[in-house]
Amino acid sequence: MKSIIVSLFENKQEGKESLEELKELLKAVNGQCLGYITQKRSQPDPKYYVGAGKVEEIKQIAEGTGAEVIIFDAFLSPSQVANLERAIGKRIMDRADLVLEIFSRRVRSKTAKLQVELAKLTYELPRLYGRGKELSRLGGGVGTRGPGEQEAEIRRRWIKKRIQQIKEELEEIKRQRREQRKRRESAGDIKVVKVALVGYTNVGKSSLLRLLTGRETFVADMPFATLDTKTSAKLLFPDIKILITDTVGFIRKLPPELIESFKATLEEVQEADLLLHVIDISDKNWLEKVKVVKGILKDLSADEKPVIYVFNKADKVVEREEDIKYLTEAAFMDSKAVIISVAKGWGIGELLKAIREKVEEFQGVS
Prior knowledge:
By secondary structure, this protein is α/β, with parallel strands linked by helices. It has twelve helices and ten strands. The protein folds into three domains: 2-102, Rossmann fold; 107-167; 190-363, Rossmann fold. It is globular, with a radius of gyration of 23 Å. The termini are far apart.
């Protein structure tokens, strides 16, 4: 998929970071970025998102480079997509389309497949309006509907019916999960503490889950390497079982449809007693990404939960474990923070100690 990426920006640095992230998302679907086209504007153009002159420039560059797809680093309206495709003559994708494409290729479990299908259908539905008329310029008298409009209406009805079916299935899955949690939590005298791993994508959450629990899980250096929720147990005390759940990684400008459709997965965050917010300490933009994650947690009404900030990948910053004490990032956080390296096994004892202290704090364990 040979692509050109297009972006508007007010702040040049923030625009560059977002473009680089979009390039990584494109690589995750084996796409090729032929180059960037940017425009500085205070407000997007309501018709094309970029200005009309920039649209002509994009068309010429696309034809000259052989680009197959134009990807916009934004959420485009249905009318903007239709207008751009007419003007440029190429397939138009936005950030949501790209993220949903990654999710479609990566999901494995039945629940995640349903969630992704729901997100894609929710995103597609408004884009059908108006498309039927474009397909029906074949004739048909005044007051009649052309074949394109009829086809679009059939598709709309099917999508609405399928969306309702998926929502009902997800509600049943949520009900079953609540029952499972009740059974786990009523296991004799053993107290159960639910811990959720959260963080920006590709910070090492799945690697940390594997290290803490011994559970085999797919790990790769790419965005959204794993999308399915995984829960494993760890006994930190003789009478307390820690249930650790890995959740889907977050990104800036996460499609709203994904937040909504992944409620069944992100419910694990809402139900958690403690959050481990994993951060890549080697990422120079880590503070901005922390803000993104906090914003999404606020959307989930999970921003008031007890949290431990876990700075991972310390081996990329210092050469020896004893040098961790010289790193100052942890001092900037508003709650307990520890620095670790999952790859080297550094700082894991300190992390377990921090988890135990937090559990004792809100459970009253002596």
